[in-house]
Structure formats: structure tokens, C-alpha cells
Amino acid sequence: NFHSTAIGVFNEYRYRLLLRFIVAYSAVYGFNLCLLEGLCTLANLPDLLAQGIAVPLSAVFSFVVLRRFVFPRRAELARAAPSL
User: Fold this and answer.
1) Model-level pTM?
2) Alpha helices for the chain (secondary structure H)
3) What SS3 class is residue 10?
4) pLDDT in tens, the chain (84 residues)
5) 67 and 75 in contact (C-beta within 8 Å)?
6) In the chain, what is the greatest distance between 2 CA atoms, to the nearest angstrom?
């Protein structure tokens, strides 16, 4: 998953980012787990419906965490580049 995400999504590939990637994916897993537990317990939703709600939110959270914490280089370069 590191290879496909690093190259396919962020067009960046450096092995030194692997540890950050693992930490970020652990955070995404924890976010999804807490969200799923909350939706099932607090909102009293069935498991599949709760996961159906949690998946899009976890995907957005995953992208934001990966963009800001694991692969920030390209975003920073884009902001620093002068506009034409």
C-alpha cells in the first residue's frame, strides 16, 4: 500500500517516509475504529450501515493525514511556486 499510495496518489517515493506512513495508517485505523464504535453504540446503528458511513469519512481523514504528515513536500512546493 505504501508503494501504490506514494507513487500513484502523491507521485513521491522515498523509503524514509515509511515509518510516517505506518504511524498515519495507525491513526486512520484508530479513527475508523472509534467512529465505528461510536456509530454502533451511541447512534445504535447496525454494523454495516455504520461502516458505510465511516468509510467515506475515514477516506477523507486518511488523505488529509497522508498529505499533511507523510507526503507534504509536493504540496509545499506547489504553494511556494510563483503563479503565472
Assistant:
1) 0.78
2) 2-3, 18-41, 47-65, 73-80
3) coil
4) 898 888 888 888 888 899 999 999 999 999 999 999 999 999 999 999 999 999 999 999 999 999 999 988 755 656 666 665
5) yes
6) 52
